[in-house]
Amino acid sequence: MSKSLTESIIVPIANQEDAQATATALEPYDVGDITILYVVEKGEGVPDKTPVEQSKQVASESFDIFKETFPEAKTETTYQRNVVAGIIEAARDVDASAIAFRPRGGARIRQFLAGDRSLRLITEAERPVIALSVEVDE
Fold first, then answer.
1. CA distance 65 to 59
2. pLDDT digits (tens, 9 = 90+) for 52-85
3. Nearest residue to 35 (alpha-carbon basis) of 65, 73, 63
4. Which residue, 46, 49, 58, 98, has most beta carbons within 10 Å?
């Protein structure tokens, strides 16, 4: 039995600005269930990038912004050292039919040194990955 590619998508967001841009990029498309995901980067033996309470606040505000466009979207927060692994694990946990994300640019040297998360997500995920357009037609 076949299933729609966008029957149940998970959409990772990084912050409030990204939530708005991602929701706007996704809005023109017909999608089924949406789960918005925020990954809190944990340090595992080293200090966290941001305090957990601050990360929870950013997640909550980001979810609210995304839900202005998709009010029925569900929310998930995961705590992982590896953001890509966190996205893939969360997609598995909610049985998402696909992962939809908006690529986040940045300096090529930073992407090279830190590892390009977009490329890793596309190559490591065990389900389809949809890269939403960064540019929005008006």
1. 10
2. 788 899 999 999 999 999 999 999 999 998 899 9
3. 73
4. 98
Q: Are 27 and 65 in contact (CB under 8 A)?
A: no
Q: Quick one: fold of 8-131? A: Rossmann fold (3.40.50)
Torsion, Cα of 31, 33, 101, 47 (10° steps): 170
Token pair of 73 as six digits: 């979207």
Query: How many Å from the N-terminal Cα to the C-terminal Cα in the chain?
Result: 37
Across the range 102-119, mean pLDDT stands at: 63
- Stated as kind and residue range, the H or E segment containing 33 is strand 33-41
- Of 132, 55, 60, 126, which is closest to residue 97 (Cα–Cα)? 126
Partnered with residue 76 across adjacent β-strands are 37
Q: How many residues does the chain have?
A: 138
User: pLDDT digit string (tens) for 15-49?
Assistant: 999 999 999 999 999 999 999 999 998 766 655 56
In this structure, what token pair is assigned to residue 120? 């890793």
- Collapse the DSSP code of 67 into the 3-class scheme (helix H, G, I; strand E, B; otherwise coil) and give the result: helix
